[in-house]
Amino acid sequence: VADSAAICPYLADRYGAGRLAPATDDPDRGRFLFWMFFAPGAVEPAMAEKAGGWAPNRGAHGWGDFDAVLGALENGLSRHPWILGASFSAADVMLGSSVVFLRAFGMLPASPMLDAYADRCLARPGYQRALALDEAGGVGPSRGRRRRPSSIFGRAARPAGLGQGSAGRIRRAPRVRGRLPAVPLPGGSCV
Prior knowledge:
Blueprint: H1 4-15, H2 29-52, H3 66-76, H4 90-104, H5 112-123, H6 125-135, H7 154-157
Helix pairs in contact: 1-4, 2-3, 2-4, 4-5
């Protein structure tokens, strides 16, 4: 399995024991799938629109535009701390990593709600464990091979304060050459 949007629900269903995703026969499963794929289907193209300076075109772009996507996300988070309610889910792994990315690269407009969501995602023990593993050189088959940067930001380019709130924003994404290293996600996994 090679795509985050496929990996997250697979791991949640296979190993989450009902904690990270509603069961396939649960009425909330549809909402879970909607938000799970909202990140790659709407947030990521909207980020590309914003970063690339594309003219917003709600008629031609299936995601609408950057502001509409953030508005939908804020609306989804308006009643509960997590996208499905009171409990963290694999959908929060996908959405939270997008919001953290937007904030780290200075693309997230002022939004107390999305800032608080990013802070909750970053504060999760699983995310902190993933960061520690990444700093130690990661896990799995790549361990022991040539040392790669500690994250997509690299040691020197990681935004100050990542994982500590919104104090350390940067304006430009660093250049990354070759294969991207493992990226810790809020749920404690690495992509």
